[in-house]
Amino acid sequence: MSSSADNGEVDAVLPTSIEAIFDSDFDGLLNASEKPTKTSSADRLERAFLEVVAFRRTHGRVPSSTTRDVAERKLGARLDGILASDYKIATLKPLDEFGLLETPDAPTSLDDLLEGGDLDLLGDEFGLLDVSDLPIRRQVHDSGDAARREKAEDFEQFEPLFKQKHAELRAGASKLLPYPGMTHIVPGTFFVLNGIMLFVAEVGETEYKKTAVREYKRERLRCIFENGTESSMYRQSLAIRLSDEDGQIVVEGGVPEILADDEMSGYIYVLRSRSEDPQIAAIKNLHKIGFTRGSVEKRVKNAERSATYLMAAVDVLASYRTYNLKASALENLLHRVFAKAQLDLTQVDAKGRDYDPSEWFVVPRGVIDQAINLIISGDIVSYVYDPQTQKLVKHGQ
User: Fold this and answer.
1) Which of 74, 235, 265, 380 stands the most exposed, by the fewest C-beta atoms within 10 Å?
2) Can you give the residue range of the structural domain that contains 57?
3) Is the predicted pLDDT of residue 224 greater than 90, yes or no?
């Protein structure tokens, strides 16, 4: 687990030994299904086509099969071979960001035929058909799906992360390693592409595209670059660029490895109330421990109108991203650990109805962090919380 300052996120990657903590979990809440991987001819075909897509993105044109450049000629011939096969076109259509697989309509008039002339059937030896003085008709390959760099409007939220990561690199706490593969492109990861550091802030919902032979899935990323721009390229596109352009991953020493096959479950969060109610404001170390599958910020956006949040705005002190289990099980375990410190108070909401706040505990913030670390290590089974001393103590002490 890596920690950060208040309002930051912490990745909580639970080891297989976590199962020992939940011996009573007969419902199998924490079981994570294995995802076997296999390489097929369709996978190899997709990889070959993505190299063509990467060339189009870098150079702004399709590769030529007649150029003297050997590498480009190879890609051009590959594209020609793909375009000659309806099967390959149907298979690769979901990956076609620039309309490379679009086939032109057959000419329906003499004007259409003159506009083509790819086979030089109408060779103009004397320049009679020279139209160089006319406006150039721009050829558009972009299908509308291509991701472009644009200004990141909320870059101020990410700028401290880049500064921290550079400081870690200078201090040796983090290091640069060669790009290890697409399975490492997950939220919270830093990479260096062409000398510019980028942060994978989000991975969008999986899009499913059906072809003639298979169902293909892809995800849009939200990549924040340290120069203040962002991109919504696909995960596969970033993988190709990092691979082809000698990209690097920023690795923090001692942090458990999180791979794409590790499925994010949600967030455990810790909140502090801003309530001005004297009954609540007077309680020291009052914290809410909750769970959400989505953004913590969105979850607490209207806290002042919700009895769950004591009818007051809250501060997000920390959030813990969890993988490969139902985070609600982890939340329930935390509640069980701190059951003796649960807030015992009846409040009145905006409509005059009584309610008893749940998930609020009188526990120091540091003890909550300690409990989560003990859960991750599997040692929590040896501890209980003592509300008198406000400490976690070993059984029998």
Assistant:
1) 74
2) 41-106
3) yes
